[in-house]
Specification:
Number of helices: 18
Shape: globular
Distance between the termini: 15 Å
CATH topology of the largest domain: Nucleotidyltransferase, domain 5
Strand content: 15-25%
CATH architecture of the largest domain: 2-Layer Sandwich
Oligomer: single chain
CATH class of the largest domain: Alpha Beta
Strand order of the largest sheet: 5-4-3-2-1-6-8-7
CATH superfamily of the largest domain: ATPase, nucleotide binding domain
Radius of gyration: 22 Å
């Protein structure tokens, strides 16, 4: 298997209900290559494969191909033909392993080799992630059909990093039967990103991961915050589903559970519509009619009161979690890490979140903060800041690739 890694490639795929995101890596050393997205699977008239590759001179080569794609298997077959034409004519023989991003793995605590037992657990978890696990299973089935039994497949779970939460953090104060019989508890999500952020922050600070206490902020259309104690997740803002926690693009985040019950009783809204209201029509969209924070910021700058309110609610919720997780870490915070679309690219959001945290030991360098956009990585706190503040562009595909190599190739993968 070591020789296969040295000569082979690694394919990472993330299957959505009508999409297939992909990235190809050289397996050893682990280097990212061409990546892209197949969209509108099942809509034969509009399905599209788009891809890009960053060249050594810093420029980017791009492709776009409109082609009928009826299901995930035909999508993957189309992808392999595309890679054969543009990367290597023997690409199917070169792929040494496939890494799959799966949202929910119940109690699975690490990346694992896919077998029938793991697939059954993913199927069971689909009740808790109905929008995500079934497409993930479709991607697994397609990849296993295309590559056959000789190529190993690894599942990397969004929930795995958070399996280190202690019971007092993951239990809800509900009758115990709901936990024992229906697995109702906090699971947390974005775990692959939070794991990558903690590991990268530790490396940037020159300390072992096991000696790092950090608050990692994955802020995008979907947002979450995690408390990392000595390299392990000990609390996280998302819960049984990704709905809990921060205000997001279209998700409400934390909410009195009586609110949806009251709305259902007084308006006649059914369970399915209530679910859509909470997940797809709330958050920034619900507060000001726009789910893109960039547009909210523009409107706020022009004096729009609803946009200003939406921004205030968003910032307050993030800041509140940072404060709560400072307590969860017993006041010992080495770093606050910002990432994802908003966290990586909005100096304003970072400044507003950190602006009132001086008493916690946070001192922001305004100039460094303003410059840290567009995929840049670095520190935005002043040298005298007790808590270091970092911007780290998340790379979930790289993390999936690293974990896949570790599972399939053992110690060699860990050394990468």
């Amino acid at each position: 298997m070591g020789a296969a890694a040295e000569a082979g490639r690694l394919l990472v795929i993330n299957a959505g209900s009508s999409s297939l995101k992909f990235k190809l890596f050289a397996a050893a050393p682990l280097v990212a290559g061409l990546g892209g997205l197949i969209e509108r699977i099942g809509d034969a008239a509009n399905s599209t494969l788009s891809a890009k590759l960053r060249l050594p001179d810093g420029s980017t080569q791009k492709w776009e191909d409109k082609t009928p794609i009826t299901n995930h298997t035909t999508a993957l077959e189309k992808l392999m033909r595309f890679l054969g034409d543009n990367v290597s004519s023997s690409i199917e023989q070169e792929v040494a392993a496939v890494g799959h991003r799966i949202v929910h793995g119940l109690d699975i605590a690490k990346a694992v080799l896919l077998d029938d037992a793991v697939i059954k657990k993913i199927e069971k978890a689909a009740a808790l992630a109905p929008l995500h696990n079934p497409p993930g299973l479709a991607g697994i089935a397609a990849a296993q059909k295309v590559f056959g039994p000789a190529v190993p497949h690894v599942a990397v779970f969004d929930t795995a990093f958070h399996q280190t939460l202690p019971p007092h953090a993951y239990m809800y104060a509900l009758p115990m039967e709901y936990y024992k019989q229906h697995s109702i508890r906090r699971y947390g999500f974005h775990g692959t990103s939070h794991k990558y952020l903690a590991e990268t922050a530790a490396a940037m600070m020159g300390r072992p991961l096991g000696q790092l206490n950090a608050i990692t902020c994955h802020l995008g259309a979907g947002s979450s915050v995690t408390a990392v104690e000595r390299g392990r997740s000990v609390d996280t803002s998302m819960g049984l589903t990704p709905l809990e926690g921060l205000v997001m693009g279209t998700r409400c985040g934390d909410l009195d559970p009586a609110v949806p019950l009251h709305i259902m009783r007084t308006t006649g809204v059914g369970a399915a519509e209530m679910d859509a209201i909470l997940n797809k029509r709330s958050g920034l969209l619900g507060l000001c009619g726009n789910n893109d924070l960039r547009n909210v910021i523009e409107r706020r700058a022009k004096g729009d009161p609803e946009a200003a309110l939406a921004m205030d609610v968003f910032i307050y919720r993030v800041r509140k979690y940072v404060g709560a997780y400072t307590t969860a870490l017993n006041g010992h915070v080495d770093a606050i890490v910002f990432s994802a679309g908003i966290g990586e690219n909005s100096p304003l959001v970072r400044a507003l979140v950190c602006g009132e945290l001086q008493r916690l030991g946070v001192i922001i360098d305004a100039e460094a903060n303003a410059e840290m956009v567009g995929g840049r990585q670095g520190f935005i706190s002043k040298p005298e800041s007790r808590v270091k503040v970092l911007v780290v562009p998340t790379d979930e595909e790289l993390s999936i690739a690293q974990q896949t190599v570790g599972v399939v190739f053992g110690d060699m993968g860990e050394q990468m």
